[in-house]
Amino acid sequence: LACAFAGLWNCVTINPLNIAAGVWMMLNAFVLFLCEAPFCCQFIEFANAVATRADKLRPWQKAAFYCGMAVFPVMLSLTLTTLFGNAIAFATGVLYGLSALGKKGDAISYARIQQQKQMDEEKLTGTLEGQA
């Protein structure tokens, strides 16, 4: 909603780049509604098809798509309206990007890896000292 309202507000000007950025922001809001909340667009016939296709995308693909959609209007017209309007769309992309990275490892497995590295280094230095 923030992207849509900011896009509408951005269109109330005579600057053509602001109008283009505003139209793009409203298009972003519509695409986000279709992909993330298809129940809000029940009156549109193809909403469920778009939502199922968006659900099949990997998280990093969604992250690139949402962040790319949010950056374009800011590049067209760098104003506070475009920055704040696209912040939520960009944050959605960032969250998908973070989910693509996976879960954080637990401390026990990290300690085992560190201990294994230390043991490997000790073996390596021991063989090097034996060769010298």
Automatic annotation (TrEMBL):
UniProt superkingdom: Eukaryota
Presence of keyword Transmembrane: yes
GO biological process: vesicle-mediated transport
Major subcellular location class: membrane
Subcellular location per the Swiss-Prot or TrEMBL entry: Endomembrane system
Source species of the chain: Struthio camelus australis
Transmembrane segments: 63-96
Bilayer disposition of the protein: Multi-pass membrane protein
Keyword Transmembrane helix: yes
InterPro entries found in the cross-reference section: TVP18/Ca-channel_flower
A cellular-component GO term for this protein: endomembrane system
Entry protein name: Calcium channel flower
Protein family (similarity comment): Belongs to the calcium channel flower family.
Keywords associated with the record: Membrane, Transmembrane, Transmembrane helix
